[in-house]
What we know:
This protein has helices at 2-19, 22-41, 61-69, 83-92, 105-110, 126-150, 171-201, 205-210, 215-245, 254-278, 282-298, 311-316, 321-335, 339-371, and strands spanning 52-56, 79-80, 97-101, 118-121. The protein is mainly alpha-helical. It folds into two domains: 2-42 and 168-371, no CATH class; 52-150, 3-Layer(aba) Sandwich (abc type-2 transporter like fold). It has a four-stranded mixed β-sheet, sandwiched between helices. It starts with a helix and ends with a helix.
Amino acid sequence: MRWLENIFWLVGKELKSTVGDPVMVILILWSFVAAVILEASGAGDTVRNAAIAIADEDRSPLTRQIAGSLMPPWFQEPVEMTPDQASSAMDRGDIMFVLAFPPNFAADAIAGKQPVAQLLADATAVSQAQLGADYIRSILQSESEFFLSRNSDGPQLQLALRRAFNPNGNPVWFKAMSSLLNQLSLLTIALTGAAMLREREHGTIEHLMVMPLTPVEIGLSKVLATILVVLVAFIGSLLFVVQGVLNVPVAGSVPLLVGGAAVYLWAAAAIGMLLGTLARSMAQFALLVIMVIIPVIMLSGGMGAVESQPDIVQKMTLALPSRHFLAFAKAVAFRGADLGAVWPQLALMAGLGAAFFAASLALFRRSMALIG
């Protein structure tokens, strides 16, 4: 079992090189602590704490009911203003939304005249203005329908909404898992590829070639060392940042989630090794990482549902281990899935990792032959 001993000592060398680099340690801590918190708790694609004013010229129970429904965490406490005051406040940037009710708004609604309420939005924050307008439109419609149903003799029908797996619709839950995936992908690909290039740029690749080592042993040592470092950081971030600071519950098995992360790291490290073998300098490697990491993050399902992508793109994303890991993580963390439900994702990640590792090993063998 000489090859196991060789891999053991090579992994130790890689771990000493990574842990002994203060910049690398700071980068890992930043990625799995500060970056996860900032990305998960940021405003993102939701409305949060938006300032809103109410210009109520009707002062009816209906308008008061609508104003009372504009509540945190989406909106600040509504401020009652006159139309002129609201216009000035919006000009100064103090208010993002102004909801104005004309006189006799409630009376016209009861009479079936379909009155119109005016909503003004500060569109300098484009996405927040659009999403906030949708929120307000939905609140106004639902509260008006509820009010009118109490003032009519017809059947009072209401839609009962039940949220599965995330009762409060807290976006932090999903963003935290998506952020962990992003950090896993970026760091694992970057660390593995950089380790490959460091041997070439420092001239130590020639030292390895004269030793009784095979390309498989050298490649596995790079991959396993990166997996160990990033997996330890992932476990710490999951326990102390995601579950501790962000209060994201994990419905399923934490050991299963960690095991799935290890399988994904195998695939991501194989991609990093492939890029590190293709590149001839650190500058080339950086460009390759940018070209690869953007599709890995954008098409995995973390920034938008995979089902909303074009059919041809959906088929292409089947070759991305990140897509399968995010599906696996959501199933385990939020739906409490067991191994019997997620084994296809684990098998796909392991198979893709083996394919990428085989490709990188073939290129590495060829590059070592050329150097020799």
